[in-house]
Structure formats: structure tokens, C-alpha cells
Design brief:
Order of helices and strands: EHEHEHEHHEHEEHEEEHEEHEHH
Strand order of the largest sheet: 3-2-1-4-5-6-11
Distance between the termini: 40 Å
Structural class: alpha/beta
Length: 335
């Protein structure tokens, strides 16, 4: 199969592309290599991918309709996995238009190209942030998610709505994946694990938001990738029992599905910091801070649907995953 991975130079896109290449797929990567964070990290990931003969790369922007149309015209994709997006909750408060361009306009271009080129399955990244003001735990794909608390979250919820429309109108099979706090080697420098590890190793203080009264369902990147691959192999056909009288948000009569991918085991922020201290062998200097706008106090994934349909649920312990990240960090930055 030939599979398009958008955001291939990104954290998850890089790991996913390697996994698909190892199982014998031809992978076409598409990325704009923007400077939201260190471009060298993206280029180094890309350099590893280019070592594979079955990997081909196009540099371009999803919001550029002509570039996306050209990409699809030059390739016959069996499946598309859309991971390209403007990431980050806090950045959406500073630069909201970037989220409309990448996450709304860009996703529209992907949907249109998948529709006109008869792609057999579109899998796309959503986010746990869509749960917004929800407090019923664990977060279930069968819960209503109409109260986002950041534009980033709203853009991801919009992707799910747009995907459903194309599944309904044009029979395009789509699956949305709500990722829960992904971490691991080659991770994003704006994420807590990267920020904390760097600061601790450099003997600098770390900012602990909401005075540490936070918990996250940290999910190791290999588990995320395994979930994406399994879901991509399961093309949704529609739920014959779906009813408009009692509408299930996770499914539809159309070939549409949404899953959570999370570790199903939330960890308190202060325990997370303790594990980083253990793996780095150094103590953190903590600067307690209030809650940030757009943030939520806790995330916790219900992964029953993912387990039922794919036979898989993330299970890498935080101790194992953080250890692997710290080892990679020391090696990459020669510390």
C-alpha cells in the first residue's frame, strides 16, 4: 500500500512513518517544516526517514490547495493519515489564525483530495483537548464534547465534524483519533517532558502549573503508533444500530468512527516530575504557578472501544517511557 503521512517530520508522524516502512508500506511524507519549534529536530527526523528507499518526501503546506492537489495528482494513495496540524494549546491564545489555516483550511484540502481521489480510508489526529470543560471521568468517545476551552480544541472538534460530513455525503471512510498527552524519544520541545528534562539537567527551575494539582493520561509514542496502524487497517463501515433519537457521538450510520488513544491511567503532575528526577538522577527546582488559560486539570482516557475493535490498548508504564526519553535526550544533545 502507498500511504500518505502528513506531518511526517513531526514527532508522531516520524515514528508512524518508520513503523509503516518497517511493515513494507510505501510512505509519502508531507510537511511544511515550520518553525513552531526547532526545525533542526524536524530535519534530523527527516534525515532518518530518507534512509528508507520506500520513503518519499514533499515539502508543502496543507493550507496551500494547489500543493495538496498536486501531491494527490502525482500519487495514488490507498490511505491517508493526517497528523499535520498547528499544535499547542497555549500558542492558540497568541496566534489563533495559525490554527484556522493549518487545522481548518488544511484539513478541508485533505478531505477534498481524499474524496476526489477515492482514498479508501482517512485517519486523522484529533485530541483529548476536545473534552474541554467535561469533568466526567474517564473521558469517553460516547460523551458530548461541545465545550472546548481553547481554539486548538475547537479546531480539532471541527475536524471531527467536517470528517463526519464527508463520510455522510460522499461515503469517505474516516476515523478520528483523540490522542492523550503523547511523549517519548524525538518528542516536541514545547511539551512538559522535554521542558522539564532540559531544565532539570541544566539546573534551572521548572514551572509547575495549577500548583501541581494536575493529572495527565501520559501515552508513550510507540503505543500511539500501534493504535494508529491498527485503526488504519480497520476501515469503518458505519453503525447499523445508530439512531438519531439517541445519537452516539463516536459512530454514525456513515462510515465514521472516533477513538481515544490514551494509557487509561492518569498520573499526577508531581509524580511525573518525581519519575523524571529518578531517571535524570537530579532534583527539580519547582516554581509553583497558577492554572494557565485554555488548560484543563485532568485527562483520563476510556479506551474500551479501541480495545474492543482492535484488540489493543496502550500499556507502556510511565517509568519505562520516561526512561527511554531521558536516554534519547542525553544521547541527542550529548549530555
Amino acid at each position: 500500500m502507498k500511504i500518505l503521512v502528513t506531518g511526517a517530520a513531526g514527532f508522531i508522524g516520524f515514528h508512524l512513518s518508520i513503523s509503516l516502512l518497517k511493515r513494507g508500506n510505501e510512505v509519502v511524507g508531507f510537511d511544511n517544516l515550520n518553525d513552531y519549534y526547532d526545525v533542526k529536530l524536524k530535519e534530523d527526523r527527516l534525515a532518518i526517514l530518507r534512509n528508507h528507499q520506500s520513503f518519499h518526501f514533499y515539502k508543502g503546506d496543507l493550507a496551500d490547495q494547489k500543493a495538496v492537489e498536486k501531491l494527490f495528482a502525482e500519487n495514488k494513495f490507498d490511505r491517508v493519515i493526517n497528523l499535520a496540524a498547528q499544535a499547542g494549546v497555549r500558542y492558540s491564545l497568541e496566534n489563533p489564525r495559525a490554527y484556522i489555516d493549518a487545522n481548518i483550511v488544511g484539513f478541508m484540502n485533505i478531505l477534498e483530495s481524499c474524496r476526489h481521489n477515492k482514498v479508501e480510508h482517512l485517519v486523522y489526529a484529533s485530541s483529548s483537548s476536545v473534552y474541554g470543560s467535561n469533568t466526567q471521568m474517564p473521558f469517553s468517545v460516547h460523551h458530548n464534547v461541545d465545550h472546548p476551552v481553547s481554539l486548538y480544541a475547537a479546531s480539532k472538534k471541527a475536524n471531527e465534524l467536517m470528517a463526519h460530513t464527508y463520510s455522510h455525503l460522499f461515503g469517505l471512510p474516516t476515523t478520528g483519533l483523540r490522542f492523550f498527552t503523547v511523549y517519548g524519544p524525538w518528542g516536541r520541545p514545547d511539551m512538559a517532558l522535554f521542558l522539564f528534562t532540559r531544565a532539570i539537567l541544566e539546573d534551572k527551575p521548572i514551572k509547575v502549573f495549577n500548583n501541581g494539582k494536575m493529572s495527565r493520561d501520559f501515552t508513550y509514542v510507540d503505543d500511539i503508533v500501534e493504535g494508529i496502524v491498527r485503526v488504519s487497517d480497520r476501515v469503518p463501515a458505519g453503525n447499523p444500530d445508530w439512531s438519531g433519537e439517541d445519537p452516539d457521538p463516536a459512530t454514525s450510520k456513515a462510515p465514521y468512527q472516533v477513538y481515544n488513544i490514551g494509557n487509561n491511567e492518569p498520573v499526577e503532575l508531581l509524580r511525573f516530575i518525581e519519575i523524571i528526577e529518578e531517571k535524570t538522577g537530579k532534583k527539580a527546582s519547582k516554581e509553583m504557578m497558577p492554572m494557565q488559560p485554555g488548560d484543563v486539570p485532568a485527562t483520563f482516557a476510556d479506551v474500551d472501544d479501541l480495545m474492543r475493535d482492535t484488540g489493543f490498548a496502550p500499556n507502556t508504564s510511565l517509568e519505562t517511557g520516561v526512561g527511554k526519553f531521558v536516554d534519547w535526550f542525553r544521547d541527542y544533545y550529548k549530555i
